[in-house]
Design brief:
This protein is of the alpha+beta class. Helices cover about 35% and strands about 30% of the residues.
């Protein structure tokens, strides 16, 4: 047993020593491995040059088209409808001044004739009063002369009585005759004193009769309902032979000259638009009355759009006013725009008219904001990545003037023609090497959008 262990040790130790010697020799005599120097890798990015431009702040809202003018053919007098215009049919377009219907005139002709007869009778009574006054004045002169004679007789009778040549009865008779005549004069004078009052009463009666005749004449004219402006028939609720009551709506017509759209827009967005257009205007955005007055002095542009499949029709519009209240649920305010000549140029096959009930988009544009225009996606808060010197990544802190849709207008912190990085960099580190590539398509888009 010991002999076998000794043999194993004597054989193993020389082999281990030989291996270690060979390994040491190999390490000392072998050439060192080649070293690989690490090179910096450039990151490919898309860039666009920062170019000056002007972008108009816009505001979009949606609403329904309504006519600016609506005419309700309301009967002002009652009667049987004797005639209706054949064109008074729903959807028909009628010019201004078109008679719509006529109510039977017989009753109103009679009422006018009676009122005019009453007027003539009142005027005749006034003339009669003038003649009566002249007659009474003439009679007064006669009676006054007779009174003078009676007074002279009374004076002679009194003289004779005092001389004892006339009895008491004679003096009494003379006094009685003088009193009777004086009473006649007084009666005529009292009648004449009433004539001015009677004349005023009669003149008022003439005025009443004249007003009655004028009312009858107006009622006769009201038997015909006439369209005051060009319009389309929206509804008809009358026909020949039907009795139409006063105050009843016979038809409703929508004016075609001007169309209105009340677009609901957020108050905050309206304030932002006005802040760029007129800095002092934003304070009035919560007061509809003040805002309506203020909008009259602003040069706001508006456009109404109607989407029909793949086609979009547009109409130029004017910002007219804002609605009277703010919706408490949505915080939106109705901005009303007007479209003139909404029916002009309409062609059923190519371009329909802007009619009531259409759901349209309204875009309102304010005063353009000038600055350097860059893609909105390139802006992170107030920071932009730029390609700096030696194609190294650099960060810039900027002041955005307007951020809207896909665009951002920069006011300060960015130089013209600076190369703005518009692609995402997974691990962006200032100073890293870049391989910039001009994005011509995006640059062209920005140029069109300015």
């Amino acid at each position: 047993m010991m002999r076998n262990s000794l043999k194993l040790i004597l054989l193993t130790l020389p082999l281990i020593g030989a291996g270690m010697g060979y390994l040491a020799y190999t390490v000392q005599t072998k050439a060192p491995p080649d070293q690989i120097v690490a090179a910096e890798r450039a990151v490919a990015v898309r860039v666009i040059p920062a170019r000056a431009g002007a972008v108009a702040p816009t505001l979009r809202g949606y609403g329904l088209v309504t006519p600016a003018e609506t005419f309700e053919a309301i009967a002002q007098v009652s009667g049987t409808v004797a005639w209706t215009n054949p064109g008074l049919q729903r959807g028909a377009a009628l010019p201004a001044g078109t008679p719509l219907l006529r109510i039977a005139e017989e009753d109103y002709d009679l009422a006018l004739a009676q009122a005019e007869a009453n007027l003539r009778a009142a005027e005749a009574r006034l003339d009669e009063l003038a003649v009566s006054e002249d007659n009474q004045r003439a009679a007064l002169e006669i009676e006054r002369e007779a009174l003078a004679l009676k007074a002279a007789d009374l004076a002679r009778a009194r003289s004779l009585f005092e001389g004892g040549n006339l009895p008491q009865s004679g003096l009494d008779n003379a006094r009685s005759a003088e009193l009777v005549q004086r009473q006649k004069v007084q009666g005529i004078e009292a009648g004449l004193s009433l004539i001015p009052t009677q004349r005023r009463v009669q003149q008022e009666q003439i005025a009443v009769s004249r007003a009655s005749a004028q009312a009858a004449r107006l009622n006769l004219g009201r038997t015909t309902l006439t369209l005051p402006f060009e319009a389309r028939v929206a509804s008809v609720a009358v026909e020949e032979g039907r009795f139409l009551r006063s105050g009843e709506v016979a038809a409703t017509l929508d004016g075609t000259a001007v169309a209105e759209v009340e677009a609901q827009v957020p108050v905050a967005r309206l304030r932002a638009l006005l802040r760029h257009t007129a800095p002092d205007a934003a304070a009035y955005a919560a007061d509809p009355a003040a805002m309506t007055k203020l909008l009259e002095g602003l040069s706001l542009m508006a456009e109404v759009r109607l989407v029909l499949g793949d086609e979009t029709l547009t109409w130029p519009a004017r910002v007219a006013r804002v609605s009277e209240t703010i919706d408490p649920r949505t915080g939106s305010l109705g901005v009303i725009v007007e479209v003139e000549d909404a029916y002009s140029g309409a062609a059923p096959a190519r371009r329909p008219p802007l009619t009531k009930g259409m759901f349209v988009e309204v875009e309102i544009a304010g005063k353009p904001v000038e600055g350097l225009v860059v893609p909105r996606a390139a802006l992170s808060g107030t920071s932009l990545w730029l390609v700096g010197a030696d194609d190294r990544l650099a960060a810039a802190t900027v002041t955005p003037l307007l951020v809207q849709d896909e665009l951002a207008v920069i006011g300060e912190g960015l130089d013209a023609d600076a190369r703005v990085v518009v692609s995402d960099i997974p691990f962006a580190l200032p100073g890293m090497l870049l391989a910039p590539v001009e994005d011509d398509a995006l640059a062209a888009f920005l140029a069109r959008a300015r």
